[in-house]
Design a protein that fits this description.
With 148 residues, the chain is an alpha+beta fold. It is built from two helices and seven strands. A six-stranded antiparallel barrel has the order 1-3-4-7-6-5. Strand 5 and strand 6 form a beta hairpin. It starts with a helix and ends with a helix.
Length: 148
């Protein structure tokens, strides 16, 4: 009787270990698959972009007619921009930006709408995605000349 109890205890212990090992494999596979999915999603999003994006890190002179006060354009294309702002504009609100590019001394003015926003790593700052109302072909040409 005692032998049989030891056998069933050993069997149940072995089953528990197998179950724990299977759960660990499942968790590891989930993480690997999740990483692969994230990479594929990023690549797909890049392919869907209509225009080349340029990392510019430029100071914004004016936002909606007020001085930029540290606002920056992180990246820019002829269709939109990613901004770093000290305030969070409402979703789908209109935004007007004035800035200069490194090679050009004239002030460029663009108009678009806010399509996304999130908190930036710096406290009190926000990253904002802006989609321009029109394609700024001249902006694309200037960016291509600057970033050869």
């Amino acid at each position: 009787m005692a032998d049989q109890k030891k056998k069933t205890d050993a069997e149940s212990l072995a089953q528990a270990e197998e179950k724990a090992a299977a759960e660990a494999r499942k968790a590891r596979n989930y993480l690997v698959n999740k990483e692969i999915l994230v990479k594929m999603t990023k690549k797909k999003a890049e392919k869907l972009r209509k225009a080349r994006r340029f990392v510019v890190n430029r100071e914004v002179l004016e936002v909606n007619g007020k001085t930029g006060t540290g606002a920056q354009i992180i990246d820019l294309s002829m269709n939109g921009a990613r901004l770093r702002l000290p305030f969070c504009p409402p979703f789908m609100s209109q935004i007007t930006l004035k800035f200069t590019l490194q090679t050009d001394t004239k002030v460029l003015s663009v108009v678009g709408r806010v399509i996304w926003s999130r908190h930036a790593l710096d406290k009190g700052w926000h990253e904002v995605g802006v989609q321009f109302y029109q394609n700024y072909w001249e902006l694309d040409q200037l960016l291509r000349l600057e970033y050869r």
